[in-house]
Amino acid sequence: MLSFLDVESAQRSSQSEEVARRGIEAQESSNLALYTLALQHDAARLYAEAAGAYSQLLEQPLITGADRERAAPGDPSLMLHFLALKNLSALESRGDDKAPGRADLLESALQHALHALAIDDTDGLLWLRLGRLASQTGRVSLARHALEQVRVSPSRRACAAQKRSLADHDLAARLTGPCHPPLPLSLCS
To answer: CB burial class (10 A; 0-12, 13-18, 19+) of residue 131?
Structure first.
């Protein structure tokens, strides 16, 4: 079937595509500004404000719509989604273990870490945090799995984390048992 399109309609169509593209770029710019604000609050030790900014970022349409399977490599929305989840998990896992509501914060941190790993499962520090959080919440099998992921694929960041935290190394040894020897620190240099 043949169809004809007048020049004016074609121009309107290309203009609306341009407006839509600019709208996405504006949203990405706004999301980046919100992420930067969250980082600044975190650096200034304004943890409640940082957590609020990360949560607000996670509610943005481009961020919630970012999907690992459909996104192009290096998609800024997917990267911001991952980083916001990872940083929010880190914020929630800080603090006094005896503080009221701590169990809920640890559970939330664990869920954010799991969602971040669903986006990028190559982050050794995140696997290590997941192992710690799972151990603190009594999920021994999840803790073991997370710490085995760090041991199976020792990235430089995971090794740096292992060097920094002997407590995590001891936890990994207790959970994974003698069948998996600890990573030689010589691999981490």
So the answer is: buried
Task: Look at residues 103, 102, 124 and name the one whose alpha carbon lies nearest to residue 113.
Answer: 124
Q: Where are the alpha helices (DSSP H) in 44-101?
A: 47-58, 61-64, 76-93
Q: 54: Cβ–Cβ under 8 A, 6 or more apart, which residues? A: 35, 38, 84, 87, 88, 91
The count of other CB atoms within 10 Å of the CB of residue 120 is 16
Alpha-carbon distances, residue 4 vs 7, 9, 112, 141 (angstroms): 10, 10, 52, 64
CB 139 within 8 A of CB 167: no
* pLDDT of the chain, 189 residues: tens digit per residue: 555 555 555 454 554 565 556 688 889 999 999 999 999 999 999 999 999 999 999 999 989 888 777 777 778 899 999 999 999 999 999 877 777 888 999 999 999 999 999 999 889 899 999 999 999 999 999 999 998 888 766 554 555 555 445 455 455 555 544 444 444 444 443
Contact 171, 135 (CB under 8 A): yes
